[in-house]
Specification:
Elements: E1 12-18, H1 22-33, E2 38-42, E3 59-63, H2 64-72, H3 76-79, E4 84-86, E5 88-97, E6 100-110, E7 120-124, H4 125-135, E8 142-146, E9 150-155, E10 160-164, E11 169-177, H5 184-188, E12 193-209, E13 216-221, E14 227-231, E15 240-248, H6 249-257, H7 260-270, E16 278-280, E17 285-294, E18 298-299, E19 302-304, H8 306-309, E20 310-311, H9 319-337, H10 344-373, H11 377-392, H12 394-405
Parallel strand pairs: 1-2, 1-11, 2-8, 5-13, 11-19
Antiparallel strand pairs: 3-7, 4-7, 5-6, 9-10, 10-11, 12-15, 12-16, 12-17, 13-14, 14-15, 17-20, 18-19
Length: 408
């Protein structure tokens, strides 16, 4: 008797999102809420409390286009209570003086110049992960599977078959690589990256300060990179900000290991005392600073988004907002293609649409970072003149603010 070979009982989905960080979680919510059968996988569950090892102590200012995406997929009302409005951006240029930092100039960019609302809304990253973990189980068509990751992939004309680390496999019309700067999906798709290293690291932490922030994000320039204070809600009745402090690598490690009283004194000095005394209010995390751009943004049945596609220095809230611009464009194309998603023409359109914005933004942020971190007196003068020109010439100011809010 001839036996008929049994086809594997392999589940099928429209979209497989690989990566369960903030971008991956938002992607899973977006595709599921838009009617696509979606599976998200990640080998490591997110840390959703503020005092554990591995907590992401950074913050993200989600700009208006990100808020629009959250509203479209029906999650903004649940996220908004945990956000701090970002009403404006205060840029302060300082230099070293004989008795401490000297304030050379400052300018303030007001969000309501471009619309009757803030530039954006700031969240601590671990708060965002916590809230998304609460939201995702209620999104239709969406399955979240932590503890299992991507192992290998076979793509063909009509779908991709992905083998998972637990030995199971899944068939997807579209695989979304949202698995970070060391993306396994990108590697499996044969896509390389171009990387620029600066010898910098950033410290991320939360700090109390004496003077209220007034819902302003403040970037203070000296050398080594910007010292950025992003507004948070008061903590225990005290004004607080999320801080990203960029430095040359050895200096960043020195600060990471510095005892708390000395660290408080050093960061108060680095902030030029603009908000009174600063006091550490959390652990300190350290992150390498690079610019990295994928050589391609798509492959057969694969779309590459977020840090798998691009990593930018933490300047001007461009990183995660650029990632959500990727997602918004990909979602729009999927909706336009209905049930026939993930085909080559669609993914080529995604890659063309996003490539120009990503590469232009990477060049601008790269140049800006080089100027801001420099100890060269000429470049510091260029920095000062550039700040004045960008702010004081209204058409330039308005153009820069609009460019910062959305695709270039």
């Amino acid at each position: 008797m001839t036996q008929t070979a049994q086809k594997p009982n392999r589940p099928k989905v429209d979209v497989l999102v690989v990566g369960g960080g903030i971008s991956g979680m938002i992607a899973a919510a977006a595709f599921g809420a838009s009617g696509f059968k979606t599976l998200m996988i990640d080998p490591v569950p997110p840390v959703i409390v503020g005092d554990e090892v591995g907590t992401d102590l950074r913050s993200t200012a989600f700009l208006r286009p990100a808020r629009d995406l959250f509203e479209k997929i029906g999650v903004w009302d649940q996220l908004a209570p945990h956000a701090t409005p970002l009403e404006g951006l205060r840029i302060v240029d300082t230099t070293d003086g004989p008795d401490g930092p000297v304030l050379r100039n400052e300018r303030q960019f007001e969000g309501r110049e471009t619309a009757d609302e803030p530039f954006g809304w700031n969240f601590l990253n671990w708060h965002m992960r916590r809230e998304l973990m609460r939201i995702l189980p209620n999104i239709p068509q969406t399955e979240i599977r932590y503890g299992v990751g991507f192992k290998s992939m076979l793509t063909r004309t009509g779908s991709a078959i992905v083998t998972l680390t637990d030995g199971a496999s899944v068939e997807a019309k579209l695989v979304v690589a949202a698995d970070g700067r060391d993306s396994s999906v990108r590697t499996a798709a044969g896509v390389g990256v171009s990387t620029t290293r600066y010898g910098q690291k950033s410290l991320a932490f939360t700090a109390f300060h004496d003077v209220p922030h007034g819902n302003l994000s403040t970037e203070i320039y000296r050398d080594g990179g910007p010292f950025t204070m992003v507004p948070l809600k008061d903590i225990d009745g005290r004004p607080a900000s999320a801080i990203v402090w960029m430095n040359k690598g050895p200096k960043a490690i020195e600060l990471l290991n510095m005892d708390i009283p000395a660290f408080n004194a050093e960061m108060t000095d680095r902030s030029a005392g603009l908000y009174g005394n600063l006091e550490l209010a959390s652990q300190r995390g350290v992150f390498p600073i690079i610019t990295q751009v994928a050589d391609q943004l798509s492959a057969q049945r694969v779309a590459i988004i977020a840090e798998a596609a691009h990593v930018l220095p933490p300047i001007g809230a461009q990183g995660l907002n650029t990632s959500l611009n990727d997602l918004a464009e990909l979602l729009t194309l999927c909706e336009a293609n209905g049930g026939d998603i993930g085909h080559t023409a669609m993914l080529d359109a995604y890659a063309r649409s996003r490539h120009r914005d990503i590469t232009a933004r990477a060049r601008v942020v790269d140049l800006f970072n080089r100027v801001v971190q420099s100890e060269d007196s000429i470049l510091q003068s260029v920095r000062l003149l550039g700040l004045k020109a960008v702010h004081d010439i209204k058409p330039v100011r308005m153009g820069v603010m609009r460019a910062g809010l959305g695709p270039l």
